[in-house]
Design a protein that fits this description.
The protein has 98 residues and is of the alpha+beta class. The protein contains 2 helices and 5 strands; from the N terminus they run βααββββ. The protein is 34% helix and 33% strand. The protein has a 5-stranded mixed beta sheet. The mean pLDDT is 91.
């Protein structure tokens, strides 16, 4: 499957990556954690938890191990495509509006 990011998800990811580069003791963890999630999305996208289900789509959520992020995404099996909707810090408490 191909993994794509919406403009909002890409902007969030870039903003978080910048913060990790500037403030983290081990900034490489961010890239590693996100890389693991992207690889899982490409290989077994439906392994994430269902975050929201409606008549028109299922939104999944997959968490990173060390950086405490949630990646929210939809799967289009017909087009072999995963679209990341949000990259969200678990520390924010409430999930994003889906």
């Amino acid at each position: 499957m191909h993994v794509y990011f919406t403009p909002r998800a890409r902007a969030s990811l870039l903003r978080m990556a910048q913060r990790w580069r500037e403030k983290a003791r081990i900034p490489e963890i961010f890239a590693s954690d996100i890389g693991i999630v992207i690889a899982r999305l490409a290989s077994v996208p439906t392994s994430g938890q269902v975050a929201k289900r409606s008549a028109s789509r299922v939104v999944y959520r997959m968490g990173t191990e060390k950086t405490k992020l949630h990646v929210y995404y939809v799967v289009n099996s017909a087009n072999a495509q995963v679209t990341v909707l949000h990259v969200w810090s678990q520390l924010r408490g409430a999930p994003p509006k889906l």
